[in-house]
Amino acid sequence: VHVYIVYVSLALGHGARRLHVSAAYRAKVAMSRFEPTSFVNYEKLRSNVDIVQKRLNRPLTLSEKIVYGHLNDPHNQEIDRGRTYLRLHPDRVAMQDATAQMAMLQFISSGLPKVAVPSTIHCDHLIEAQTGGPKDLARAKEINQEVYNFLSSAGAKYGVGFWKPGSGIIHQIILENYAYPGVMLIGTDSHTPNGGGLGAICIGVGGADAVDVMAGIPWELKCPKVIGVKLTGTLSGWTSPKDVILKVAGILTVKGGTGAIVEYHGPGVDSISCTGMATICNMGAEIGATTSVFPYNHRMRTYLHKTGRGEIAALADEYANLLVPDEGCEYDQVIEINLDELKPHINGPFTPDYAHPVSQVGATAEEKGWPLEVKVGLIGSCTNSSYEDMGRAASVAKQALDKGLKCKAQFTVTPGSEQIRATIERDGYSKIFGDVGGIVLANACGPCIGQWDRRDVKKGEKNTIVTSFNRNFTARNDANPATHAFVTSPEIVTALAIAGTLNFNPETDYLTASNGEKFKLVPPTGDELPTKDFDPGQDTYQHPPSDGSSLKVDVNSQSNRLQLLEPFDKWSGNDLVDMQVLIKVKGKCTTDHISAAGPWLKFRGHLDNISNNMLIGAVNSENDAVNSIKNHLTGEYGGVPDVARHYKANGVSWVVVGDDNYGEGSSREHAALEPRHLGGRAIIVKSFARIHETNLKKQGLLPLTFSNPSDYDKIRPDDKISITGLQTFTPGKPFIAIVKHSDGSVDELELNHSFNETQIEWFQAGSALNRMKELQH
């Protein structure tokens, strides 16, 4: 009990000390975080790659080398890009606090004593932006004490490192400490691919996938296709790394990368910093890519040295040919971008693939009726909060200050980590941001994920915000569906916040100084890395004890934040007959629509409570309304979760019908757990986003796609659907759906699935976790 209390107090940051350390000591600290160098096994990677290369007898892309280098059975694994499922052994797992709750609850349910691979929990999602960093952090610690205690004690018991609230955003912490060239890491957040900027294969997954890896079970991934992006020329002026991915998103759209790894290569790569490469890989999630990666180069070497990992850099140099693509390797698709010709971009509103050159967005906004006034500019987030990002934005802000100007818009700054916060404070960037009218928020996700107590506009009021974030779905940042959110680089955000309007192109337009003089901003500049080394700031890491078996993890049965899981029911052995259509969803339906974040984040560890947000953001095709569907047992309209609960209580199974790229966005598995918990059996759509489709399978649901996408139009909101052929459920064999309409007519539709043999066993057992337990006995 005493040990347990000590870990709780550490979790809340009591006695956090400030460390002013040398690079050598930083390296020592870094090594204590699961001693990453001892896990850098390039010989094993090379051995596996050699085995596969002899079998395939062809040059390999970089992503193939790293992925195939982590195969469970490189001698016999069937490898066919886009078709076969690979069984892999990732090197480590990272979880952010909102998804870690459910992941750890599932791990506890597995009955295993300790994680089999190095794993960490990162407290970044539960801190709401309100008044500024210190006060917001203190408030979050108080409000979320029960959750932080649970995660801290569960980490200590099961061997998982714990990064306390205030330490920073998971992806920045991974880049600073855990990512390295050639590593394979999975994370319970869709922007885990950020680590590709350091030559790593980092993939976003749901919590159930993380449990598999933490249990030491081979992890399954459909063999990715590989999209090559060849970069030529050099970045310069106002053009930034962010513009590369904004351009790529405009080309590939939000689903163009689905099932593929995006691999950047070509002479233009060397003009991009390591953290800039991370920005590009981070936002690859917005095109549906499995992950993105850059080849090892001198920029990565420098970053490794600056973050206390010179030993890894030396090893990477030794095995450099393993960490770049082979000459003559083939990509499934190639995009070429000339960085000399690339112009600053801004994407939005409402979708991250709606790309505009900054020079044109003002005219487009006038034509479309988008509000021109920029109400708030927000920089930071896991996508753009590096030292270089902050330096370039500060150089723009300093020019305004020198001319007697402040931001016309509100301006917020989110440091990506405690190390970044401390270093930009030491080097004067924070003061510049404050002087120009900015507020430095906590080292956390904040407004990017909807953790923003915004009060300057009323809900429903049309307004424009510009951010350096990665997503801009409807109502994502501030819960206001009328907010027009645009994503761009931090330096463009800063310029637009100073100008106060979308109709401003810093490359050509003038501002008016306080003395009335006209002046033009000069292109931003900023050091790639700090000259004086990083200041690590406060020590915010808790390493697990060597043996935590005697420690206790408490979950109060009366809690409204945490709830132990009950196993889902097994498949009955019969076809699913006469399931009611709960809702036929119209248009875009992201995981934000299925399981909203913002104020709902506090229930991420309590399945029954968070299920009250299921599909409340989805548009009902019957009436174009949100959270208003017909209860076909009562004839009355109600909220989606309420009707689903009523059906479940009355023994009525139900299905959801959806559109294209259903479940795009976040990796949150709650979007799969909630439908299962409330009685859903199948989700039938035109197409799925990768992570969500896997999450549905993991929880024992049937994610199915129309063989003919136009069959979506044949489904009516009051239909009853039967899925036949479950007794002969086999990979590649479609199902037949019998659709009964209320007028007595019937349609028979063919439905496809992507289940393999192992995944069919998940369905039959009721969930992947149920199947794991079966295999233990």
UniProtKB/TrEMBL annotation:
Residues 579-708 form the Aconitase A/isopropylmalate dehydratase small subunit swivel domain. It comes from Sphaeramia orbicularis (orbiculate cardinalfish). The gene is aco2. This is Aconitate hydratase, mitochondrial. The keyword GTP-binding does not apply. Its EC number is 4.2.1.3. InterPro entries: Acnase/IPM_dHydase_lsu_aba_1/3, Acoase/IPM_deHydtase_lsu_aba, Aconitase/3IPM_dehydase_swvl, Aconitase/IPM_isomerase, Aconitase_4Fe-4S_BS, Aconitase_4Fe-4S_dom, Aconitase_dom2, Aconitase_mito-like. Its cofactor is [4Fe-4S] cluster. Residues 524-550 are annotated as: Disordered.
